[in-house]
Amino acid sequence: MSNLLTVKDLVIKAQVHHPGEKPVAVTIVDKVSFTLEKGKVLGLIGESGAGKSTIGLAALAYGRFGCTITGGEIILHEQDILKFRGDKLRQHRGGQVSYVAQSAAASFNPAHKLDDQIVEVAISKGAMGRTEALKYAKTLYKKLGLPNPETFGQRYPHQVSGGQLQRAMTAMALASKPDLIVFDEPTTALDVTTQIDVLAAIKDAIREFNTAALYISHDLAVVGQVADEIMVLRYGKMVEYGSTEQILYHPKEKYTQQLVAVRSVFKEEKPRTKAEPLLKVAKVTASYDGKVKVVKNLSLELEAGHTLAVVGESGSGKSTTARIIMGLLPPSDGEIFFEGKRLPPKLKQRSKELKRLIRMIYQMPDVAMNPRHTIRDIIGRPLTFFFGTRGKEREAKVIELLEQIEMGADYLNRFPAELSGGQKQRVCIARALASKPKLVICDEVTSALDPLVADGVLKLLMRLQKETNVSYLFITHDIATVRAISDSIAVMYQGELVEVGQKSKILSPPHPPYTELLLSSVPEMRMGWLEEAISGRRMEAAGN
Amino acid sequence: MSLARAPLSAKLGLFVVIFYVLVAVFGPFVSPHSQSEIVGGVWEPISSKFWLGTDNVGRDILSRMIFGTRTTLFIAFLATSLSFSWGILTGFFAAVSGGWIDQVLSRWVDLLMAFPTLIFALVVLSIVPINMTTLILVMAVLDSTRVFRIARALAADTAVLDFVEAARLRGESTLWIIFREILPNTLTPLIAEYGLRFSFAVLFLSSLSFLGLGVQPPAADWGGMVRDNSLGITFGRTASLIPAAALAILTVSVNFVVDWLLDKTSDIRNQG
User: Fold this and answer.
1) Alpha carbon B188 to chain centroid distance?
2) Considering its fold, how many domains does chain A have in total?
3) Using CA atoms, how far apart are residues A457 and A452, in angstroms rounded to an integer?
């Protein structure tokens, strides 16, 4: 069978504007080649900046703002699409090749009904008339497992769930009967329990309609479920290219091996002692508007030097729990105890000493640091504020903290924008630990980081815990992280505690239905996992 | 921010602004006559003796322009600076505090803004004695409502970011949050806004003087000079066009500089 798509020596350059310097052209995709047959799926995998999305968009003969395709060929149906101009190019985009973006919520126009948006491309490309297109859309809704396919399209984007919207976007991509679909991280923004359904729907649809697909993701386990072949990319260059089986089970390159190895961090669970817990949350209920209870009757305990992981999907109330403990949202009922004493519910009522002892690290290090402050000021401020340390003494302490997070004095005068994502999060950790806290609340601290970088940050957190005996309340949706770092686990669902206990107890069966759903939804690094997981389900995910 | 790479319009604008400032500061020392001295006939044309001619009572227009530049720029500068200090402080305070403080301040500003500015100023200035202080205060109070709105909007955007929450959780004071966390992140648009409001202040002062409620004679200022000489237009005398042109050139120049500053916003070192 002949190839549908052939990409030969693709080179894409971008204008990079380093602050204070003249713009320079940087090669973001360097001589990448691959072929794709009809009905096959190629997975493109790599961390941020690997060039995977750029390659995906190049299949639509499109370069993002500032990017130019400077070399190579992209041949679809024996025609070089990079030479297309005007009408021919318009016909190609959306007609022969379509695109599914990461955020469906941002890609649909909230003012139009789903039907109108989904059939629009098919009609404008002349593939079919409106009546026929609407009929075809209903077939697609049915194939993608959307509820009430007859009337689904009559809804507006905000009237359906995130998982449904992502499937609706897949329907939009399929509506013009394209030869190739580019999926750009289609499940990354979804909860794990929803991701699995969308993944299954996408996989079925690709098989059913015999289209080819480029599936872009940073998550190798996800790509492993849908792709026939996988290409591993790093810094715009191909690292390894082979069948899914070869990449997952016999990776040749060291980088691929690291990706397959998932987590290299593992912490032995510390047994519970009889000691009084450092933090005790007793039957806390809270709401933002006084009506809807976001957290209901929550009780948790955390010992000194231990890590308690709070797991759950979006809307489970885990971040609200952090806000309650920090004093940003006073509970309407229940109490919190810190070192055996009742913690005042409002931040304003808490002493400076309490603020020093309870600190927080945020999910997005980019916005957690003032972009106009230097690293010296960011780490040094808590030292001055809580201990009155100034001048040379402060400078020495800041350098000491920088060394603790495996950075050094060279970084003192830098601004946050001049650091990498992992370094930014390390600086945030140093800022939190500067005040010598006893409890640090980590709110999804590794979610915005690439897997290998996240690994490094987790290792750092665990080393610092050993050195300083600090306790972590670790909020996350990622089960792999929970496995790696926690001593005890609390599972939350729609504001309520499903179960809480030592790690070994929570992670071994029997589980309550929700814990089982959550655990079974985490993609595993092996082929055939998706089918097994779907067939073994006992509970429907809330996103459906 | 390199001036060498700035567009021609910005260079031109900056040159004009600097020239005006130099005239305002040093002009009166080299001015040929004083501002109120009658030195010639009525509306004498441009000559080697009177470089810009004479006005409706025979005073040297060049000398009056020089003194007028000083008066106009001085009042506009003080009024704008004052309105910015008030506007930024109250605007930031409203955004950071939120709740009823924000409501009270915002509604108060709404109330002030409900009156057309010029009419409001005319009413106030016809009650209070007109002198430099009252003039500056009235202009500053009225202008600070606009600054309040912009400062509040800018601060509200920044105040929701995690680093402000981090500062709050640390227990930092409201003043620290306003001046150390928020101000540095809103400075560039505020500087640009300062330029714009300054040129509006010049225009506003000139309007007041034109209507007789601004700078009082015999002190010279541009708006007053346009009014004094406006009758001359009927006789083909161009004396009133000279202060008008000075106004127009300054306003355009300030806008050129502001445009360049705003363009530069995306380009500052720590904005990546």
Assistant:
1) 17
2) 2
3) 9
Q: Which of A58, A56, A51, A65 is nearest to A82 (CA)?
A: A58
Pairing of strands A229-234, A67-76: unpaired
Q: Does residue A412 lie within any of the structural domains?
A: yes
Q: Measured in whole angstroms, how far is the alpha carbon of residue A534 from the centre of its chain?
A: 22
Which domain does A436 fall in, by range? 279-524
Does residue B153 sit in helix, strand or coil? helix
Helix (H) or strand (E) holding A159: none
Q: Are A318 and A310 in contact (CB under 8 A)?
A: yes
* Partner-chain residue, chosen from A347, A367, A386, that has the shortest CB–CB distance to B163: A367
Q: Angle between the B61-97 and B132-159 helix axes, to the nearest 10 degrees?
A: 40
Tokens of B71: 């008066």
CB contacts < 8 A (A, B): 61
Among all residues of chain A, which has the CA nearest to that of B182? A370
Q: Tell me whether 0.90 is exceeded by the ipTM.
A: no
pLDDT in tens, A237-276: 999 999 999 998 999 998 888 888 766 667 778 888 878 8
A24 with A137, same domain: the answer is: yes
Residue A176's DSSP bridge partners are none
Which of A97, A107, A93, A94 shows the shortest CA–CA distance to A166? Answer: A107
CB contact under 8 A, B170 and A418: no
Q: Which domain holds residue B255?
A: 8-27+60-271
Instruction: Enumerate residue ranges in chain B where pLDDT < 50.
Output: 266-272
The shortest CB-CB distance from B271 to any of A355, A362, A417 is to A417
Q: Which parts of chain A register pLDDT below 70?
A: 1-2, 17-22, 262-265, 538-544
pLDDT digits (tens, 9 = 90+) for B118-175: 999 999 988 988 888 999 999 999 999 999 999 999 999 999 899 999 999 999 999 9
Mutate to test the interface with A, among B157, B163, B176, B186 (most CBs of A within 10 A): B163
Q: Is residue B99 part of a domain?
A: yes
Closest to B151 measured CA to CA, from B99, B205, B194: B194
> How far off is chain B from A172, nearest CA to CA, in Å?
35
Question: What is the Cα gyration radius of chain A?
Answer: 25
Q: What is the CATH number of the domain that holds A164?
A: 3.40.50.300
Q: What is the pTM of this model?
A: 0.81
Phi, psi of A509 (to 5 degrees): -65, 165
Strand partners, A13: A27, A68
Neighbours of B268 (CB within 10 A): 16
Scanning B157-216 for CB atoms below 8 A from A yields: 161-163, 165-166, 168-172, 180-181, 184-185
Enumerate the residues of chain A whose CB falls inside 8 A of the CB of residue B163.
367-370
Report residue B20 as tokens. Answer: 């005006």
Of residues B162, B267, B272, nearest to A362 (C-beta): B162
Burial annotation A514-526 (CB, 10 A radius, 16+ → b, else e): bbbbbbbbbbebe
Chain B residues touching A368 at Cβ < 8 A: 162-163, 166
Same-domain status, A323 and A452: yes
